UniProtKB/TrEMBL annotation:
InterPro entries: CoA-transferase_III (IPR050509), CoA-Trfase_fam_III (IPR003673), CoA-Trfase_III_dom3_sf (IPR044855), CoA-Trfase_III_dom_1_sf (IPR023606). This is CaiB/BaiF CoA-transferase family protein. It holds the Pfam family CoA_transf_3. It comes from Tepidiforma flava. SUPFAM superfamilies: CoA-transferase family III (CaiB/BaiF). The lineage of its organism: Bacteria, Bacillati, Chloroflexota, Tepidiformia, Tepidiformales. Gene3D superfamilies: Crotonobetainyl-coa:carnitine coa-transferase, domain 1, formyl-coa transferase, domain 3.
Length: 395
């Protein structure tokens, strides 16, 4: 099967979520991704091949979807010999991904300026919290800090309450991993025109702010900032909200357009509210009234009712229900892969390409699982590999 990124070789130096997510997306569409990982410590229980083999390690790798479809080599890049190995890998690579703090790759000698001298076609992508430049560049942080600076955290939650903290989706995965994968694909296309690679600077706070484009377009136009729970799309409106059902579960309504609103009111028996959809003074009263109505039936009962008409509605699925939902299953968004510990479930590939579809090809490797294979491919003998491993250059 032809895949969109067949022939693209990626070296991934990253460790935390954004980089691995980026390279997972690329691997799912055919890229040959090699994780360049740290050599396990001397205190680790290593087998004859240097792998941390144990049932727990095998299971952790099998369920680590972010590592799927990849190979792994363990290199101690602080050692000159390890850097020489990496440079040889770069000669035949297309992309290098890293997620260190600004300046680290320069100190290690694996920065774009150095690598582009070895391979002018190389594309280097740096993923960091605040980017490589600016006053915040060297600050530490996590998703919550990046969405705070990017504006997303400040518009979530309910009035008078602390901001609602989402799982680390917005900065790590959308603003970071997904943005980086998009940028890398752009650079690959650009290289076809210029013949040269380039350096990519992905700041997760930038990515979050980009996701806020529409919200800020409105702010720039009207001068009215969005506050938590006071905006049509973040909890102020009765027709774009969540309601607790009789079984304790929640149900979401998104009936913004007037015809969807009319259908909603008909089903709920609130036709008297039809002319008042956008009367913001009445929204608190309407929310309270809707809450009382939704509390009379279970979430599944409301879904059965709402799905009979054109109403933007869906139950708020808990994780255990997401992965058994008939629609998610029909869309191939829950898959099974073979692994050393048996079949494991993972989340599937989101974009559906008709001619070159994505397909996860294997579960994640153990650290250094392919070290010997990769070094052999570079021309190292078994004796040389054993010597490098004995001195901690590779693992």
């Amino acid at each position: 099967m032809v895949m969109a990124l067949d022939g693209i070789k990626v070296l991934d130096l990253s460790r935390l979520a954004p980089g691995p997510h980026c390279s997972m997306l690329l691997a799912d569409f055919g890229a040959d991704v090699t994780l360049v990982e740290a050599v396990p410590g001397a205190s680790a229980k290593l087998g004859s091949t240097g792998l941390r083999r144990s049932e727990a390690a095998e299971r952790a790798a099998a369920y680590n979807a972010l590592g799927r479809g990849k190979k792994s080599i363990a290199l101690n890049l602080k050692e000159e010999e390890a850097r020489k190995i990496f440079y040889r890998m770069v000669e035949g690579a297309d992309v290098v991904i890293e997620g260190f703090r600004p300046g680290v790759v320069k100190r290690l000698g694996v920065d774009y300026d150095t690598l582009s001298q070895i391979n002018p076609r190389i594309i280097c992508c740096s993923i960091s919290g605040f980017g490589q430049t600016g006053p915040y560049a060297n600050l530490v942080g996590h998703d919550i800090n990046y969405i705070a600076v990017g504006g997303a955290l400040g518009v979530t939650g309910r009035p008078g309450q602390p901001p609602a903290i989402p799982v680390n989706l917005l900065a790590d995965f959308a603003g970071g991993g997904l943005t980086a994968a998009f940028a890398i694909c752009l650079a690959i296309i650009a290289r076809e025109k210029t013949g040269r690679g380039q350096n990519i600077d992905v700041g997760m706070s930038d990515g979050v702010l980009s996701l806020m484009t529409s919200a800020f377009s409105q702010y720039f136009s009207t001068g009215q900032p969005i506050r938590p729970g006071e905006y049509l799309l973040n909890g102020a409106a009765p027709f774009y909200n969540t309601y607790k059902c009789s079984d304790g579960r929640w149900f979401s309504i998104g009936s913004i357009e007037p015809h969807f609103w009319a259908n909603l009111c008909k089903v709920l028996g609130t036709e008297d509210l039809l002319p008042h959809q956008f009367d913001q003074a009445r929204w608190p009263e309407m929310i309270e009234r809707f809450a009382g109505i939704f509390a009379t039936k279970t979430a599944d009962e409301w879904m059965a009712i709402m799905s009979q008409d054109d109403i933007c509605a869906a139950p708020v699925l808990e994780m255990e229900n997401v992965v058994t939902n008939e629609h998610n299953l029909a869309r191939g968004m829950v898959i099974e892969l073979d692994s050393p510990v048996g079949k494991v479930k993972q989340i599937g590939v989101a974009p559906k390409l008709s001619e070159t579809p994505g397909q996860p090809r294997s579960t994640a490797p153990l650290i250094g699982q392919h070290t010997d294979e990769i070094l052999s491919g570079l021309g190292y003998t078994a004796e040389q590999i054993a010597d490098l491993r004995s001195r901690g250059v590779v693992g």
